[in-house]
Every structure is written in structure tokens, then in C-alpha cells.
Write a structure and sequence with these properties.
This protein is about 35% helix and about 30% strand. The chain contains 10 helices and 14 strands. It has helices at about 40-50, 70, 90-100, 105-115, 135-145, 165-180, 190-195, 215-220, 265-270, 285-295; strands spanning about 5-10, 15-25, 30-35, 55-60, 65, 75, 150-155, 185, 200-205, 205-210, 225-230, 245-250, 250-255, 280. The strands form 3 sheets. It has a 6-stranded mixed beta sheet, with helices on both faces. The longest helix has 16 residues, at about 165-180.
């Protein structure tokens, strides 16, 4: 299945929450949806779920507008805990599975499978409010998975998790993607997004600023080149094509390069000054790129 977000717009009075947002999440793809607080991530996800109505645009799954029947195929994990705090974990997950149409035995088997997979099987008899925040997050993910969804939409699923829980949740999301499920999740942990995601969308002030693979996005940002040419005179790199900033770190020169700069021309210029002991190019991280895109 493919989740298509087609030209979504949403206003609250004078405030524009979404302004023509477009992207898609393909079958078997992990899509990272990143942006600052208030950028429009949660609004987009709530429109996907039908919790909010868009002023314009459409959400489709495999070309079909999202109605009640299609919505049943989506697994949703909200940023705010959406569970009944005084209800026992096992009973709550069974109840949610039955609401999605599973039989009693199917619901029991699904709850057993996912609580075991997420490391909370021993807590099924506990109420949600007695659990740590990390375990509540695991229960919330189990609630999104218990009906075997065809699409996963997760709002800040890694929030409040310890490193072990992050690894467990990462493995589950990768498994669902490997099963062909399109998975979209928002997160402020950009190093995790960079490591996990096939593609990333960056939203700022309600507009999609960039969409692509991590490598595509990083290659479009300013790269950093470190050159160690001990005999190079001061200012040797100033004015070279594509060099937008020059700093000196001892006898090393640190150059900021515009996208598409030919680093071989810079190497040639460095060699003309004498021996070059280091010449290392580093693409920006997703965190650096995010800052650059949002600040633009």
C-alpha cells in the first residue's frame, strides 16, 4: 500500500498550520517526518487519521480516499498517551483489537504476540498508570500493532524511551517495513531518523521544505572539507570556486563548500602549494541539514 498526502492545507483562524503539503510513503518504506514543534507534523498525522479535516487536499491509501473502512487498516500511535490509565494492559489491548474486528481468539493471540515481542508480557495484568513512561510507550505501540495494520502512523514513538527500548522499537518498525507496510514516524531524534529511515521529509511552518533519501538530502547541503597542506600560505583557498567559507584550525584549513562544488579543483590548488597530508570531505549530518533548511 502507498500512503499519499496530496496538497493538504489547514488553517486555524489567521494561523496557517499546513500549506500545500505533498509527499508519499511507499510500501515497505520507513519515512521520517521531522520538523520543529508547531511545524505541522501532528496536524498532518491527525488529518491522515480523520481526527481533523483538511481545508483542502486529500489523503489516499492505494489511491483510495481514507474513509472509515480504510481508516481501520491504519495503526496510529499518538504523541499523547491515548490509553485508559486505570484499565489493565491485556484487557485494554484485547478491547482495542476487538474494536478493529478481530475475533476473541485472534485478539488474544495478537495481544500475547505483541506484548511478548515488546517486552511487556509480564505487565499485562497491570494498569497502564502503574507502568513507567517507557513501558506505557511500549503498550501504546502494541495498541497500534495489535490489529495487524496495513499502514503505520507514529507520532514521536521514541519519546521517553531508554536505549534498550529504542532498539526494540526500531527492530519492530524495521520488521513491519520489511513486511511491506509503509511506516511514517515523527521524531526529534534526528540521528535515529538518519540511521533508520529510507526517506525523510522536513516540514517547517506548515510547508514541506525537503523530501528525499538521507543521502540525497545530505548531498544537497553544504559540505565541509578539511585540508592539511602545511606549506600553503594564508588565504590560499580564498576565491576558489564553490568555497563559501574558510576557517583555519592550526595548520589545517576548513572549507565550507556549496552543493555541487568540484573538490578536485580544490585539491589541485592545494597541491600547487606543496604536499597535502590530509584531504577529507564530510557531508552534513541530518541534524546540520535540518538546521540549515529550517533557518532558510
Amino acid at each position: 500500500m502507498t500512503l499519499t498526502i496530496d496538497n493538504l492545507s489547514k488553517r486555524y483562524g489567521d494561523k496557517t498550520a499546513l500549506d500545500g503539503v505533498n509527499f508519499e510513503v511507499r510500501p515497505g518504506e520507513l519515512f521520517g517526518f521531522v520538523g520543529s514543534n508547531g511545524a505541522g507534523k501532528t496536524t498532518t498525522m491527525r488529518i491522515v487519521l480523520g481526527v481533523l479535516a483538511a481545508d483542502a487536499g486529500e489523503v489516499r491509501i492505494d489511491g483510495r480516499p481514507v474513509d472509515l473502512d480504510v481508516r481501520r487498516t491504519i495503526g496510529y500511535m499518538p504523541e499523547e498517551r491515548g490509553l485508559y490509565p486505570k484499565m489493565k494492559v491485556g484487557k485494554q489491548l484485547t478491547y482495542l483489537a476487538r474494536l478493529h474486528g478481530l475475533s476473541k481468539s485472534e485478539a488474544h493471540d495478537a495481544v500475547e504476540r505483541w506484548t511478548e515481542r515488546l517486552g511487556i508480557a509480564e505487565r499485562v495484568g497491570d494498569t497502564v498508570d502503574s507502568l513507567s513512561l517507557g513501558n506505557q510507550q511500549r503498550v501504546q505501540l502494541a495498541a497500534a500493532l495489535v490489529h495487524d495494520p496495513k499502514v503505520l502512523v507514529l507520532d514521536e514513538p521514541f519519546s521517553g524511551l531508554d536505549p534498550v527500548a529504542v532498539d526494540v522499537m526500531s527492530e519492530v518498525l524495521l520488521q513491519k517495513a520489511n513486511d511491506g507496510v509503509p511506516v511514517i514516524f515523527s521524531s526529534h531524534q534526528l540521528d535515529l531518523v538518519q540511521r533508520l529511515c529510507d526517506r525523510v521529509g522536513i516540514i517547517s511552518a506548515g510547508r514541506m521544505r525537503a523530501v528525499g533519501t538521507v543521502d540525497e538530502l545530505r548531498s544537497g547541503g553544504d559540505a565541509t572539507l578539511v585540508v592539511h597542506a602545511p606549506q600553503a600560505p594564508a588565504g590560499w583557498a580564498h576565491g576558489l570556486p564553490g568555497v563559501t567559507h574558510v576557517e583555519y584550525d592550526g595548520d589545517r584549513t576548513v572549507l565550507t563548500l556549496a552543493p555541487g562544488t568540484d573538490d578536485q579543483q580544490i585539491l589541485k590548488a592545494a597541491l600547487e602549494t606543496g604536499p597535502v597530508h590530509e584531504f577529507s570531505l564530510r557531508q552534513p549530518s541530518l541534524t546540520e541539514l535540518f538546521r540549515e533548511v529550517v533557518a532558510a
